[in-house]
Write a structure and sequence with these properties.
Number of helices of chain B: 5
Helix content of chain B: 25-40%
Radius of gyration of chain A: 23 Å
Number of strands of chain B: 7
Oligomer: heterodimer
Radius of gyration of chain B: 18 Å
Largest interface: A-B, 44 and 46 residues
Largest sheet of chain B: 7 strands, mixed
Chain lengths: 551, 174
Amino acid sequence: MYAYDTFDRNIIDARVAEFRDQVERRMKGELTEEEFRPLRLMNGLYLQLHAYMLRVAVPYGTMSSKQMHRLADIATKYDKGYGHFTTRQNIQYNWPKLVETPDILTELAEVEMHAHQTSGNCIRNTTTDQFAGATRDEVEDPRPYAELIRQWSTFHPEFSFLPRKFKIAITGAGQDRAAVKWHDIGLILRKNDAGETGFEVIVGGGMGRTPVIGKTIREFLPEADLLSYLEAILRVYNEQGRRDNKYKARIKILVEALGAEEYARLTEAEWQKIKDQHIDVPAEEVARIKAFFTPPPLPVLSDDVPAVDEFANQNFIFKTWLDNNTNPHKVLGHVNVTISLKPHDGIPGDATDEQMHLVADLAEKYSQSEIRVSHEQNLILPHVAKQDLVEIWKILDANGLGSANVGLLTDMIVCPGMDYCALANARSIPIGQAIADRFDDIRRLQDIGPLKLKISGCINSCGHHHAGHIGILGVDRRGEENYQISLGGSGAEDATKAALLGPGFDEHGIVDAVEKVVAVYLGEREEGEEFLATYRRIGAAPFKEAVYDAD
Amino acid sequence: MTLINLSGIHSETYRELTDGDLPAAGESVLVPLSQLQDNGAAIFELTSSVGVIVDTETAYSDLEEFVGQVSFVDIRFPVFGDGRGFSLAVRLRKDFGFKGEIRASGHVLPDQALFLLRAGFDSVDAAEERREAFEAALKRFGAFYQTDMIGHGKSVAHLRHSASGNDTTTKEAG
């Protein structure tokens, strides 16, 4: 893991002092609410439906046991005993008091955490693959580059007042678990024919009310040129992005208006001017950062662990958990364990302080004191020896964290909706819970197989419904909550936009509709075919017929 | 309003020309870009001490023909969140090598002082009661993760590896 040196330490301490001063000036009336708003937003502090909400960065989704313990302590001390892990690999606290937020930042800074740029019209927390550096299908660990971007984008003098928020995601694996094509900038680590490392650069993706899949503007950018190239992309956007209408201010609208080729041309022209201006860091700095991400010294063990197989043969739930919640590790005999934060009746992404402490303890014992957060709102223990799996599962299961549903229908992304969010038009959490109720049998879920269901409570799409195999969007229709269903989206390397199936439903009808969609799939699937493949093969018509004509 | 110095350069006071007005011989004047575009030749004939007023919507390419003749550029922010003004200053420094004064006026915040300085601004025209806050903000951070936008100072990344910056246990000014 990256560890701060004195430079990082001084910057974070100065920032905490600055925010404390800003809060004091606001309390004294020296700053108007209009002026304070972007300052607090750039520090992850929102004013929500009921209270302030503080969004804390978990940079590129990686944290230590010590940091997780601190997050739990903050939940106990300043919140109501829980935190919410988000699709941006952040954690949100829903009930902090304004006057206490500088103290929370101080406590975070003590464990090298912060809330820099988790909100506001600036470059946000860069996200990545939750299995980065630990998964078998990886070209290279993306986290050193994410750390490089974190430092470069922190308090950037030119790009802290952009037309809108700006999100960068990066992956180093063949399988895209970071949804890079749905970001303002997506980066995919590649090797060229000479074996050199570089990036495919994708721009202009995003969800919201205008879902767009990003376009590749450069097939291979040498790794040494990353920051100057990002500067070129951002400068074009800062100057030409629309500022007259916030709904049209994202880079995706500019890329669509200019065309990806023209955007690439403008970026390239700008980059040619600046690429030798010491924007990129020296090679020694890249090497220094990379050294923090050296793989842990794991012993090579056998991938066959008879004791685990034996237990799995006797325990269907454990076997299901093994199948769904573990991912092959780079080092034989190890796996990455996903802890589902989608228990039956739970709130997707929520963890109590006790659960956070428990996960931190498990990480200390079994996963090199390392924990990850995924954009699908789950927690991960990387680098786990297979021989420890039975013991880990028993502990998780005894503490309400044993759900074996990772990748299945109830492993949903669900935005906070009208229960917490000031923007929402409809509730999301109760809809997710009602669907989870309907599909509460793990055997049935396992039979249905991999299926990504995603729910947003408004058109801003925080629940990623555009990228759901089944996407649900809650809207307000003449004062009534109405839920639209769309099918066929993907947030993976084969990114596609889900298509609206037809008119929406009330809160009960939407659950029936999901069940009918699943029934069509089960009736139509070919041997071994997953939901998305069946949908792509047979198209929307049979689903539409079942959902709308059967009544 | 009062002039707050960010970079330590000597700031001039200029008279703002109203529409159609011409400077007295040798007088320091501040002129809207549109007026320079209409009447630049006549103005430069009377004085070489000319500042130009632009807004955040101004395309940097529109400034190119005047950049060698004006001694300062006043960028007016309609709202402090309009980041185009920052890129405009960067363009003036990077693309045109402009060495004169760049001033931020209109709506800017004390909390932006370091952002402004590091994007290439030299001064701010702000309310006198905010002078202290501006000056405090300038001292807030001792080192930065980026090289500043005018090519001065070293980024933390460079300081970590430069001969004098090897000792990462000492706080360095950027």
